[in-house]
């Protein structure tokens, strides 16, 4: 079943999976990427770039949600454990901490906290993209 879905949607499915995986919903973009790379090794860099784009746009969505929430909400309404860890990392390391935005759970909260404290968008985008590209690229190497 998984293979049929991936084959039917191909790179568009990879993009959507990567986008969803980078927002608050869990996803399996790594599995989709590995499946596609194993079937199309000659397109591995292209597939990594598609996954990176989708995942980065998902992270920017979370960044903007944090930005918007900071204008209207109190931090007391957020998950204290993860938000405090992410907020401390953002305050200590700034945008560089977004290299780890690919990590499960804490990565989404890092992006949310970056938006919350209104980190520079361009710098944040660069570090988010670098971290996500590195993860997908290293994953693709496990197949090649």
Determine Rg (CA atoms, Å).
Answer: 16 Å
> What is the succession of H and E elements?
HHHHHH
Please give the count of helices.
Answer: 6
Please bin the fraction of helical residues. Answer: over 70%
Structural class: mainly alpha
Shape annotation = elongated
How many strand segments?
0
Domains counted in the coordinates: how many? 1
**Mean pLDDT figure:** 86
Distance between the termini: 24 Å
Largest sheet: none
Percent range for β-strand residues = under 5%
The residue ranges in which pLDDT falls below 50 over 5 or more consecutive positions are: none
Description:
The protein has 144 residues and is mainly α. The model has no long low-confidence stretch (mean pLDDT 86). It is 74% helix and 0% strand. It has one domain (2-141).
Brief account:
The chain is mainly α. It is about 75% helix and about 0% strand.
Which helices and strands, and how do they pair?
Elements: H1 2-21, H2 29-39, H3 44-72, H4 80-93, H5 106-116, H6 121-141
Helix pairs in contact: 1-2, 1-3, 2-3, 3-5, 3-6, 4-5
Keywords, separated by commas or semicolons:
6 helices, mainly alpha, single chain, 144 residues
């Amino acid at each position: 079943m998984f293979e049929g879905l991936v084959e039917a949607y191909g790179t568009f499915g990879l993009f959507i999976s990567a986008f969803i995986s980078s927002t608050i919903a869990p996803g399996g973009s790594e599995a989709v990427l590995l499946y596609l790379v194993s079937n199309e090794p000659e397109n591995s860099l292209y597939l990594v770039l598609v996954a990176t784009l989708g995942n980065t746009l998902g992270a920017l969505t979370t960044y903007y949600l944090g930005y918007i929430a900071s204008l209207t909400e109190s931090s007391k309404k957020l998950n204290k454990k993860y938000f405090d860890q992410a907020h401390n990392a953002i305050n200590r390391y700034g945008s560089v901490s977004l290299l780890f935005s690919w990590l499960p759970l804490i990565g989404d909260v890092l992006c949310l906290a970056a938006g919350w404290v209104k980190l520079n968008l361009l710098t944040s985008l660069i570090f988010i993209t670098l971290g996500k590209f590195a993860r997908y690229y290293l994953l693709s190497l496990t197949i090649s």
